[in-house]
# Entry
Amino acid sequence: MARPYKHPKTGVYYFRQRVPTDLRALLGDKIVSRSLRTKDPAEAKARNIEEIRKQAMIWEARRKAPEPLPHRQIVALSGILYRNFMAAREKEPGEPTIWSGMLTLLDRVADADGGLERWYGSYVDNLLLENGIVTDDASRKRLIAEVDKTFRQVSAEQLKRAEGDYSPDPNANRFPAPTTSGDSTTSKQVSIRALFALWERDHLADGKSARTVGDFRQKVESLIEFLEHDDALRVTPDLIADWCEHLRHEKALNARTVAQKYLAAVKLVFAVAVEKRRLKDNPAKDVTVRYTKKKRRGRPKGYTDDEARSVLSAALSGSGLENWSDLNRRAIKWAPWICALTGARINEITQLRREDLVTEAGISCIRITPDAGSVKTDQFRIVPLHPQLVELGLVDFIRDQKEGPLFFALRTGAKPQTMAQNVGKKVVKWVREVVGITDSRVQPNHAWRHRFKTLSRDMDIDPEYRDAIQGHEDGRAASDYGETTVKALYREICKLPRYSV
# Structure
């Protein structure tokens, strides 16, 4: 739930996040929600990242009792900021007026009511989060005051450098060295969840998929549940290997899933912790789980010609839908056809809205966008509609609908992607029970993506075009250069044969 949620009536974006699994016994299975106070998508995304960071602090505070910080540790923490800011301006301090103005500004901040909290609060919270520390209000206020002192020291030293004096700061050594495992001021542990929060913050700040956050959180929580503690310093390679064995034989997960999902997630979180110097070594780095790379296959992944005709013919006739709702009937009629002639993911189609019908260069297209729900690559794309879809009446159908989702009624508080997924499940149920395609080796919705790729090869559609149509990424830097126009995509998509049903 890390993506900003747009209220369907007001258009205002909200931060929404479900209570983590480990806290539900204490807080209940509920959703935390608060307004981001904006209708602008870009601004909402930026504010949402900040809310995620704040909420991570709240979850950590719930997980362990706040502890007061001794003065030595407070000064040592502020020293981290001092060294970071000094290093960032080591070679180029800028103009003296910048730093003289900064010192004047800091005086005004200190004199203003609540000024230190507004100016330094986010720095301090982030500092505590990165170091896995949960403290009380009194210690936090002392740390804010110490950070103010540190910022003044940085500004004074940068002013001195800007004026040409690069002599060492005589007060640089006032900050105690970072504590070690034998130091009495050291925190009792390095929280695995705090390390996950560091990875999550950077992941979302880079504009990457919010769905991955939820997926990784489940993997990390699985490790914590197995360990029966949340201390990263106590995690060893042997324990990681034992956890993988537990997943394989106690949880009955296949080796590929353990290796590529669970172990991969934990490796990345610990790798980020090492990069940020929260851990010396990555305990999962050298752990491996062997698996067979290629599964045994007894048939194509995509629909055969006969299967495709059976599904599409039944969709047009409305077979077996007598007791289904009007919205589900719509989905059954159109989703298979759109998937067949666009190669799109089923959820990208079931979350389509009326406003996602667009016209470019005189060509009717659908817009597949994260604004409608969930897109795996988190990138929008425009897909021209095959002439057969237009002839079947898809464009007229969409234009006749009111704004919003085409295949479900959005309920207040519900996630569009969840409702779209539920519609996709209804399509699966219909294909299995009504059309009668029960072969477990075929995924009823995803089979269209495989079939589309096969037909594209048969029709000699260039790989670059078929990837652009389906939203696949090939990982080549060259693919980021230039644009693939709607005219070019329409020319290629028209190469696909019509379905005779």
Q: What stands out?
A: Strands lie at 5-6, 13-18, 31-35, 357-360, 363-368, 381-384. The CA atoms of residues 302 and 451 lie 4 Å apart. The chain has four domains: 5-63, 71-174, 192-275, 305-493. The first strand starts at residue 5 and ends at 6.
